[in-house]
Amino acid sequence: MIALALTAVCVCTTAASALPLTIESRQTINDLAPQPATASELALHLSVANIDHWDTAVVIAALRTAATLLAQCAIRVTGADLLQITVPDTHRHFDTPRSRELARALALPKPALYFTAGTRQVPAFDAEAIGRGNSRSRPELTDTIWIARGAHDLGQVIAHELAHVLMDSGAHDNTSGNLMAEDTAAQNTQLNPAQCAQMRSTGTRNSLLRPGVD
User: I want to staple 191 with a disulfide (CB 3.0 to 4.6 A). Which of 25, 141, 172, 195 is the partner?
Assistant: First the structure.
């Protein structure tokens, strides 16, 4: 179920940064989770900023895959607000100083995913998750995920990075088939009970997950 609201010209600036942004459209995508709700589930709602005009169908399909993967931990992705945003060329890549400006200007509810043109970070990763533990010097980026164009196995990438944010941990697990292996891949889909418990407890404590379902 998708609700679509178009804004032909919505230019957003902040007094501090005067960063010009145009929100081209906003979609609310409901019920990304594949199965009926259960009482044991915790609910997760996402903000998604498409700042490099990725194909919307590709993004939504990947979100559905990620929702399926997180469901094994009784975490239900109840929906996502998908914004198509035109930003200055200087801000289309993940780059800490400029991405801080962008995140500050948008002030999206967390967790927030950004689909970018690439990364200027060194070392360069296809995707980067920023939780509470690695955002003290860049607070605007807390609980955000930055995905570079060209990332493979996009659904697994989204679920992997969301797990990092929910656990507030950069730990990896290279057990065969584990979603949190250092290198994401189509066959890496499993989360173990300890990972699920950490996601649920830390995500709830950090107000990213809430009891009950929509």
Answer: 195
